[in-house]
């Protein structure tokens, strides 16, 4: 991916189902849980680098003993930072307490973070800022164990402002506007309510206050709390929570927009945003790991019971396809195949752009995430070439000599490592021209890899803004003097904002949107811009279910090719010698390649929740009014 888009977050939850000394005995360490958490988070570092946090719960502690710990960081290497903080604290105590290393019972009393339940999070913010206060997990503390709540999520709600207002209407006074607080307080509100009801019930049955506490923990109906809390959420989410006494849950949104996977055996329950993370960290087979179904929650009760509960009626499944194209680790068995297929399915369009001339075409990719689709593309080029060879051989059958046959067979797709990504270059001079020159050097090229008679086909996973292409990649590729550069995007054109966890909220940032505006300008049909704006305004007071996406109309008059060509025009840097063409995946082929993840609103404007239509129209209003805010 050449455009760095802020995307996603990752969650990791581990529940140890056995007492800590079991792990000490079997795996040689009582820190088994912490170590697994470290790996689960590190293996999801692709999902978030703004911040990281970890919370832990020790079960069955006596009053006065600490049972919850949390550490968060928004430093440069946040995962490393939190685990070095954890290590330092633990080592300091171990160093100063002789004998502690082998006394698990005492360790649990004395060492922070050593517990049975863990929740970790890596963050890319989609709401608010990157201050430490925005880093998950969030904590809602209380002197009653079962009223403590810890929350972390990979999510974005389109209606978080409305949810915030509701809390205020309830008479609450949230201390911050962070979306996670809003969501947590809503769960917390129903948690309190449920605890109250249970307390009254047990009191009626004659239990004393102190006797009621463990009974409340045991009977706490997490399903009911989540049903009430999530009823009004409109968004994409994998929302994880821990309750002070040791219950845990992860709830997935009803359209399955955000991913969540779980695994369970008699020792552990593990939940993560990506499947191969669990596969690698616990060395378990692919089929043993299950996806949390849309609208469902996995609830792990303190006693170790694991429940799979329907919380909300599932909507039509619209799992985010960007997870497959780019965000998730490509080491997942399915994702790997899907990415290769994305590359493969682009070949007919590529062949057209290079006039079938594979002999004079070099194939390459933008490092590093596009590597897998590149393999798919090259494999397909081989098949295409084989087809060509077969035709040539058959047509020359009568005159064929061994030399000629060898010559035909020798032709192979030419693949080269052309673009190289260098370390981030610092822009230390303020004036724009020299900055551009530095930016141009973020990528480098392999000299001699392309001849002036060659076409250069270079694949990337997506083109969002196109800035890096224009300012860096195309300029530097042009130094190799190819005849033609064909930039291939394994994703379709990104035309609409995301509001479900990717920080892509402004329309004017999208090069496809700018291309549509330019096409209207060329055609003299710019009046449509004002018209769409008015229609957006007219829907502002509608309830979400009545709102329709009117931004669609901006694209409607143009074909995909017209927009692609305009994008090429917009992205060609001044003075580019090579001819430039841009090829995008079609939406139909994306669906063919990623059949389980049909969520495609950023390409089609087809939002899976009613709030999405409100967001896209708001994004248009913001664009028109020159307002730089996010549209949710
Ligand atoms: N990418 C995400 O899932 C972000 C989570 C949450 N909306 C935040 O901003 O912190």
Automatic annotation (TrEMBL):
Residues 9-303 form the Glutamine amidotransferase type-2 domain. PROSITE patterns: GATASE_TYPE_2 (PS51278). It comes from the Bacteria. Signal peptide: none annotated. SUPFAM superfamilies: N-terminal nucleophile aminohydrolases (Ntn hydrolases), PRTase-like. The keyword Cell membrane does not apply. Keywords: Glutamine amidotransferase, Transferase. The keyword Lyase does not apply. InterPro entries: GATase_2_dom (IPR017932), Ntn_hydrolases_N (IPR029055), PRTase-like (IPR029057), PRTase_dom (IPR000836). This is Amidophosphoribosyltransferase. It comes from Neptunitalea lumnitzerae. The lineage of its organism: Bacteria, Pseudomonadati, Bacteroidota, Flavobacteriia, Flavobacteriales. The gene is purF.
């Amino acid at each position: 991916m050449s455009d760095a888009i802020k995307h996603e977050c990752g969650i990791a939850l581990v529940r140890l189902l056995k007492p800590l000394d079991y792990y000490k005995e079997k795996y040689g360490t009582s820190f088994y849980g912490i170590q697994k958490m470290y790996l689960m988070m590190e293996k999801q570092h692709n999902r978030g680098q703004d911040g990281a946090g970890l919370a832990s719960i020790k079960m069955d502690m006596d009053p006065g003993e600490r049972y919850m710990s949390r550490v968060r960081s928004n430093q440069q290497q946040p995962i490393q930072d939190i685990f070095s903080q954890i290590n330092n604290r633990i080592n300091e105590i171990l160093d100063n307490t002789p004998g502690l290393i082998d006394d698990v019972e005492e360790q649990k009393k004395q060492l922070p973070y050593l517990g049975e339940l863990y929740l970790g999070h890596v963050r890319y913010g989609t709401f608010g800022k990157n201050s430490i206060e925005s880093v998950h997990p969030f904590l809602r503390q209380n002197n009653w164990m079962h009223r403590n709540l810890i929350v972390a999520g990979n999510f974005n709600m389109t209606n978080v402002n409305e949810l915030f207002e509701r809390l205020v209407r309830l008479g609450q006074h949230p201390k911050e506007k962070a979306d996670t607080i809003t969501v947590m307080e809503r769960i917390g509100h129903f948690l309190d309510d449920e605890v109250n009801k249970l307390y009254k019930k047990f009191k009626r049955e004659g239990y004393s206050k102190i006797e009621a506490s463990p009974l409340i923990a045991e009977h706490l109906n997490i399903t009911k709390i989540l049903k009430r809390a999530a009823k009004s959420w409109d968004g994409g989410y994998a929302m994880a929570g821990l309750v002070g006494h040791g219950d845990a849950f992860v709830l997935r949104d009803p359209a399955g927009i955000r991913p969540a996977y779980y695994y369970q055996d008699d020792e552990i329950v593990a939940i993560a945003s990506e499947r191969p993370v669990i596969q690698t960290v616990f060395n378990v087979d692919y089929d043993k790991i299950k996806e949390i179904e849309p609208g469902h929650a996995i609830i792990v009760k303190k006693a170790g019971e694991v429940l799979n509960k329907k919380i909300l009626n599932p909507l039509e499944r619209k799992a985010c396809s960007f997870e497959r194209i780019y965000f998730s680790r490509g080491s997942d068995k399915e994702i790997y195949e899907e990415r290769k297929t994305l590359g493969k399915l682009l070949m007919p369009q590529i062949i057209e752009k290079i006039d079938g001339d594979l002999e004079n075409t070099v194939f390459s990719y933008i490092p590093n995430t596009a590597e897998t689709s590149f393999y798919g593309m090259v494999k397909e080029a081989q098949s295409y070439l084989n087809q060509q060879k077969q035709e040539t051989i058959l047509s020359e059958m009568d005159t064929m000599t061994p030399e000629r046959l060898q010559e035909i067979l020798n032709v192979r797709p030419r693949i080269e490592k052309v673009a190289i990504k260098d370390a981030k270059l610092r822009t230390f001079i303020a004036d724009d021209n020299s900055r551009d020159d530095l930016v141009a050097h973020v990528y480098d090229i392999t000299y001699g890899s392309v001849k002036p008679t060659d076409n250069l086909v270079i694949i990337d996973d997506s083109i969002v803004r196109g800035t890096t292409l224009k300012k860096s990649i195309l300029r530097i590729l042009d130094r190799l003097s190819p005849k033609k550069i064909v930039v291939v995007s394994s994703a379709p054109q990104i035309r609409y904002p995301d509001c479900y966890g990717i920080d892509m909220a402004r329309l004017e940032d999208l090069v496809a949107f700018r291309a549509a505006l330019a096409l209207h300008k060329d055609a003299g049909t710019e009046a449509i811009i004002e018209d769409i704006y008015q229609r957006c305004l007219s829907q502002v007071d509608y309830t979400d279910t009545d709102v329709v996406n009117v931004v669609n109309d901006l694209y409607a008059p143009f074909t995909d090719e017209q927009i692609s060509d305009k994008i090429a025009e917009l992205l060609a840097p001044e003075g580019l010698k090579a001819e430039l063409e841009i090829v995008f995946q079609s939406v139909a082929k994306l669906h063919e390649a990623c059949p389980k993840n049909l969520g495609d609103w950023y390409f089609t404007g087809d939002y899976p929740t009613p709030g999405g239509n409100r967001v896209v129209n708001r994004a248009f209003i913001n664009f028109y009014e020159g307002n730089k805010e996010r549209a949710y």
